[in-house]
Amino acid sequence: MKAAVEVSLWADDKGVESLVDAPKQHKHDSSQRTYCPIIGFMCGRCKVLRFTSQVCDGVLRLVLTPTARILGGRFLGGADWEETYFCSSAAHWLPYASDPYDPSLTGPVLEPNPSVNEGSPMAYESKRLPNGSLYVRVDMPGVPKDRFTVSVADGRI
After folding, report:
1. Residues contacting residue 91 through CB under 8 Å, at least 6 positions apart
2. pLDDT digits (tens, 9 = 90+) for 32-55
3. Contact 66, 58 (CB under 8 A)
């Protein structure tokens, strides 16, 4: 089953919210998971002109295109000039909790995903099966399910 994605533009055109239903992919998964990520322009000046969304290899990618501003005027009574300008606010480049190099977002401690509304908020799940084996689900966004290896050493994956 594929994930169902619904993306809605806010009434003020400042951002989008998504509803993502990720179905159980394996019979031992505890439940489906539902996410509700929200992203928008935080500068207060820009609005969303258009957006695209894509789900691939377990990753939801949203691309928001901001409205362009046209700057113009007269230069010393001469010819008019006009220039297309896109906001360069730092709020557009690294919104809170999205910088992959932020030390507080990396390391050995896994934190719950705050966008999960239903299902496990963690990036992993494990349970002992009736036959004594161990089932482990590990979210690895962007890693195709047919081209990776996993190893266990000293009880750690």
Report:
1. 41, 42, 43
2. 888 888 888 777 778 888 888 877
3. no
